[in-house]
Write a structure and sequence with these properties.
Elements lengths: L18 H32 L1 H11 L2 H28 L6 H26 L2
Helix pairs in contact: 1-2, 1-3, 3-4
């Protein structure tokens, strides 16, 4: 058997790009973003415990334009990951497993994440 002429496992070059693939990759990236956001939360809480000077420094960074952009991105990642996780729970029940249902539910999760993020930040007063 000559395995040197074919890939050992499937890779992105083998598959045709699809929405469901993009949403799966985005789900993984948002999981990573949420992990990094958790580190940011720990930094914020540590600064809170360290005293007013440390907390003021971290607050100034988080309330800067860059900090707000990071927090909006974190919020978007949170809502997408949440809605896509709910989508996967629905899949576990056997619904939306066809290509059309998977694609539509993916679009709904992405659109819902954008909508919920915008509503939250409008409510906060951005």
């Amino acid at each position: 058997m000559d395995s040197g002429k074919r890939p050992l496992s499937p890779h992105l070059g083998v598959y045709r790009w699809q929405w469901t693939m993009a949403y799966s990759i985005l789900h993984r990236f948002t999981g990573i973003a949420l992990s990094l956001g958790a580190v940011l939360l720990v930094v914020w809480l540590t600064a809170l415990a360290a005293g007013p000077a440390a907390f003021a420094t971290v607050q100034a960074l988080l309330l800067s334009p860059f900090g707000i952009l990071v927090m909006i991105g974190f919020t978007l990642a949170f809502f997408y990951h949440l809605l896509n996780g709910l989508r996967h729970l629905v899949w576990d029940s056997g619904c939306w497993l066809d290509l059309r249902g998977a694609e539509r539910s993916g679009h709904a999760a992405a659109g819902g994440a954008v909508l919920l993020t915008a509503l939250l930040w409008l409510f906060i007063g951005l």
